[in-house]
Fold these 3 entries.
Entry 1:
Amino acid sequence: MSLKLFAAPMSSALPVVQAIAELGLDCETVMFDLSSGEQKSPAYLAINPHGVVPTLVVDGTPLFEALAIMQWLGERHGVERGLWPAPGTPQHLVALSWSTWAYVSYGALVSVLNYAQAPHGKDHLHHPPLAAEVLSQLHAALDRLDARLAQSPWLLGEAFSLADLIVASVVTYSAYCGVNTEGRAHLERWLQAFQSRESFRTAWGGGEGK
Ligand SMILES: N[C@@H](CCC(=O)N[C@@H](CS)C(=O)NCC(=O)O)C(=O)O
């Protein structure tokens, strides 16, 4: 199987780079400089019409959206390595639930927070009451994640899995965006264990954690 990843430093591609490292897969990686706009070249738009990274090209077929890529990596390569639960098991449902929750539900709130906190050059979007509301919803979400992590060291039980990588990546990113993740014992322990992994330090560049 041939794998080619289009990625960029400090981007949504980092968790995918980390997942590939955890799985120990052979993968050609093309690093774009997003500021140069090469992600909008006709050649790349033919692979990913949205002109963003990451895209993983699997035997010539492009797969885009970081969450889809990592769930596919889990299904196709993680099960045999003990990093993703086998389809048909209850743990597989848990992995799909929490990983999708992180990107779709929690991640959507982080996007709104970024707009409400006025992204660079978009001061007209600055909206403090909306930012406060979204922050309070994000903190409530983190409380629920903390409660889940009170049940076991990792999301699926005793062992680290790509479900942890996916969820912890979004939580780590949210901390960069100003969501205070501290003060929750189980969440903090889990986040620290995640950020101490060699794959995190390598992929995210020096282990800049929360
Ligand atoms: N939801 C997408 C987000 C992809 C995305 O927005 N990537 C950004 C980097 S974080 C990008 O490539 N931006 C370049 C651009 O918009 O030109 C995913 O998770 O794959």
Entry 2:
Amino acid sequence: MRNLYFRTLLVLCLSLGSGSLIAQDYFLNDKGPFDPSIPSPEEFLGYPIGEQHTRHDQIVAYFDRLAELSDRASITSYGKTHEHRKLVMLTVTSPNHLANLSALQQEHLKFVDTKQTVTNYNEVPVFIQLGYNVHGNEPSSSEAALLTAYTLVASQNTEVLNYLNNSVIFIDPTINPDGRDRHTQWVNQFQGSPLVSDGNDAEHNEAWPRGRTNHYWFDLNRDWLLAVHPESQGKLKWYHQWYPNVVTDFHEMGTNSTYFFEPMKPIGSFDPIMPKENYEDLNDTFAPYFSGALDEIGSFYFTKEAFDGTYPGYGSSYPDLQGGLALLFEQASSRGHLQDTEYGTISFPFTIRNQYVSSMATIKAAVENKAMLREYQQEFFQSAIKSNANDVVAYEFGDDYDMNRNKAFVDYLLAHQIDVYKDGGKYVVPTKQPQQRMVQTMFETYSKYRDSVFYDASAWSVANFYNMKSSPRKNVNLTNKVTNTENIVNVVPVVKSNYAYIMDWDDYYAPAALHHMQSKGLKVAAAFKPFSVGTNAGAKDFHYGSIMVPVSKQEKTSAEVFEIVQEAQTKFNVPLYAANTGFSLSGVDLGSRNLQYIEAPKAAMIIGEGVNSYEAGEVWHLLDTRVEMPITKIRSEMFDRVSLSDYNTLVMVSTWGSTIDSIQQKKIKDWVAQGNTLITIAGASKWAVES
Ligand SMILES: [Zn+2]
């Protein structure tokens, strides 16, 4: 009855331009009274939550303020995005717990430590990590994060005080700040007054590349496993210091949908890595909390029919592989401030309220089941060291030549807290270890699935991503643990030569070293046939693609050439050798026609509307971060005006519709006919074949 009264009042007030107290009550109606010395989000921001989209820096500023004013909250930063936005975590708990946070952390970690056998499950507060807005253009959840933080910091309600006494809550308000701000700027700049709910309005239709992804147009909700980006790298580091018992991941879906919470549909794999108890028991325990909270405010929802936690790199699956319970929420999107649906309009505040209510229900469920969650996490790690997932005792890997790739892969395994050992010349990873399930994730390949239809990725044996051959082992020597990767790459320092320098192309960073030398003005040749030659490190075999720098052919002194070559080696740690003769021990000589001059690439890529932003982003990211080579990104709508003769290399990724018309197609064909290089990826290769 009281609820109905509030809702009626609220609808009235919102439509009349709403008094602020009432607007706030829409979200917080039964969570008061509130400490008046703590500003609400509305007081701090100067507008009611939901009236416009809140920029990430405003969210951080509000959290800073809460931490400054309250003895219930503290704030830390776990990294910076590519665009230098701060990644933050607000810790909220009772003042007493907050003052003893490191002691509590140690108590908590005993349940994760397989060498400990503690049983005080009910005595340690449960650790909850509320994560919001991994997809930047699914913005309701970060606004809900503001309300959740305010409730926990300012409420004097006995129910909330009980939560604080029984939990430590870590709030990450924006997992993807770069994407969020891209979207926020878009919807705020097109917001009309009065609001335009017509789905055709610009407000509801973002321009390319849209706000879902991060700076390099990567989906951060796939990056928990691959950890390519600073957002995920920072989060992993944080994660393995805290191992929360419950983790949330808030999203949005189609405007005409309702709300989704777990359980998801049955996992796709017949042999899932995730324990069945997680998928069934834990989710079934939590579900009634969400249904109850949403029923109370009259919100519709669905469960069980959709979404899939098969891939281990989602925000709603990685924590499941760390003994936690990860929870996916999906809210029908207002995408903008108000949009037409089949049932009237959906407003931004409405979407925020569902996410807020689910956040509070998550805390309630975790607090009321804390002993079960703790025991579950302890058993999760204990079971990992008791038995092998199969007969495999360990996996062995290690490239005999490419030390930089070995280093990259070992660095990666260590970031996931996987134990790695050196056994003779190879690296070995035992399967019996606390991170057993992550070991499976890295090395096992799967072929049996329940259904041929997947929500998303079905294959992710990460060793294959690194082109790292691995093999199972039946026995293993675990005496030499690898704790860091500092000494994995040991190149022989190159010495000065007046004749030539040679670099093998097999190294992970060879393209970067080549680009460095070319960008400093060195002229180089590539080997089209293999050869062996005497070098400063003795006789060496060089394969196809090896790079040769002929010293006397440069317009630089031999000292200048040496300086550049040495720089390339120091910067990228690549095997690079000096040769004093062009006469080979076998194969072609250095003056052979099979060592051909190669031009420095002047590269461009078509991006923009109609172009697959994920593929384009991968190319951009690869060149920026692995090669340190610039590429000009030409927007598709500008392509007609660009003179292709300014470039000798063009990258094209998948496009759709008539992104490239027949005139543009001819322009590219003519340019290729002049001897320039067209690199096509995925759908663009099909396009090139058919053009
Ligand atoms: Zn999403």
Entry 3:
Amino acid sequence: MDAARVGAKVMVKTRAFELLRKNGVPCGVSAMRMGEPLQIEAPLIIGADGVESKVGRWAGIDTALKPKDIHCCAQFLVQDSTIDDEYCEFFFGNKMAPGGYIWAFPKGDKLANVGIGVQGSKSGSGVPVRLLKEFMKSHFPNGKVVEMVVGGDPSSGVIESATADGIMLVGDAAHQTDPITGGGILNAMKAGIIAGEVAVKAISNGNLSKAGLKEYEDRWRADMGKHIARSFEYKEFFVKLTDNDLNQLIGSLKNEDISKMDLRGMLRVLFKLNPKLLWELRHLVV
Ligand SMILES: Cc1cc2nc3c(=O)[nH]c(=O)nc-3n(C[C@H](O)[C@H](O)[C@H](O)COP(=O)(O)OP(=O)(O)OC[C@H]3O[C@@H](n4cnc5c(N)ncnc54)[C@H](O)[C@@H]3O)c2cc1C
């Protein structure tokens, strides 16, 4: 909305299907708008086209994800009088959500996003929706599902390159999601701001090559790269834990006040309480 307010041209129902090139350098996209083909010229293209970005692939960037590095998600918007509007809830278990977790994030007025992420290598056709329905039966038996979304979420760690000549990738397209939580909205917005600022400079100084866009790579990596890399290591470790391990970890927090802990703080406390189980992670915690 803000972009539209300050003069950006917004085109809905418009799907890009290939890059336009001049002398081999991207200079826009070919697109379809409600059945009508059109060409959109642009000196610089910011690919914010989500998981396994096609814009990136067209530009020669490897945006593919291994099954173990993508989470298959389903989410219901649920109305239920039993929803606790004050707390986010998380549910873990290798049968309940293999290699992932189930969440219930309240939105107020007894509405919550209730969703599941299942590690791609442990998922299959229809699995996330089936598991989420089973969860609904046991936890919100009277809950009314008023909306549903499904989608993939990168959990791969840092992408090798998020730029090419005339191209910057942001958000899920650039695998900027946090691999341990699956949260990607904040990072996508931060990367979008950085990409916008770098785009202004690159266009005004006329250097739209990959080298000219290096500031974007440097800034997003400095801002979130380390955090994503660390979360990836956590993810690689936690997806191997048994239900007994998970019960031990959660049980160890019973005398801790977790209401004020962020994820990193909680991991630090978990390490202190379970050094043997979490020994492999010591280099990340200290
Ligand atoms: C079920 C589910 C729940 C989630 N919950 C949370 C949460 O609670 N908090 C959080 O932080 N993150 C959450 N995430 C992750 C979050 O949604 C993503 O990280 C975030 O949306 C990434 O934003 P993005 O703009 O990069 O990509 P997207 O939101 O995927 O947007 C990409 C857009 O590009 C469009 N597009 C794709 N290809 C083309 C094309 N060829 N031409 C034109 N347009 C194209 C798509 O239609 C889409 O609108 C969730 C993900 C899922 C699947």
